[in-house]
Amino acid sequence: xxxxxxxxxxxxxxxxxxxxxxxxxxxxxxxxxxxxxxxxxxxxxxxxxxxxxxxxxxxxxxxxxxxxxxxxxxxxxxxxxxxxxxxxxxxxxxxxxxxxxxxxxxxxxxxxxxxxxxxxxxxxxxxxxxxxxxxxxxxxxxxxxxxxxxxxxxxxxxxxxxxxxxxxxxxxxxxxxxxxxxxxxxx
Length: 187
Hints:
Blueprint: E1 6-10, E2 15-18, E3 25-30, E4 42-48, E5 51-58, E6 61-66, E7 72-78, E8 83-90, E9 96-98, H1 99-112, E10 118-128, E11 133-142, E12 153-162, E13 167-173, H2 174-181
Parallel strand pairs: 8-10
Antiparallel strand pairs: 1-6, 2-3, 3-4, 4-5, 6-7, 7-8, 8-9, 10-11, 11-12, 12-13
C-alpha cells in the first residue's frame, strides 16, 4: 500500500515542509512584491543547518512529501494546466536535486508513447511503496503522428522507481494502478 503524507505549496504562500526527523526543511519563499513582469514567483530551497540548496522557482503550486527515513523528498511541481513533473531531492548524505530520476522516467515513457505533438504531460510521484521505492505515474495525451485534427490518443503508466539507485524496477499498467495500488491517475 502507498505511504504519503504530503504538504501543499502555493507560490503566494510562504511555507516550510520539515522532514520526519526534523533536520531538513523544504522552504517555499515568496517575495512581498511582484517581479518586473508582475509575477509573484516563489523560490524553493532545501535547508539543513547552514547549508542551503536552491531548487528553482515554484511556478504555480505543488506538493512535497518525504521518504519515511528523511533522506529523500519528492516535490510534485504543478507547472500549469498541461504539465506537471516530479522532482527527487536527496538530502542525505549530501543535498542535491536528482534530475536523473525525472529524466529516466520521461525517457522510458517517451519511448513507449509514440504520438505526434504531446498536449498534456503529468508525471508525478504518487507515494512510497517501501523505504526506497516510489510509485511514479504518467498520464499524457497527444495527437496521432501525421494528423493535425481528430481525437487525441492517451497514455497511462506507472513506474516503480528505486530512489537509492535511480532505476526503474517495474512498469505498472493502467489497470494495475487502481487494482494493486488504489491509484486513479488516468482520465
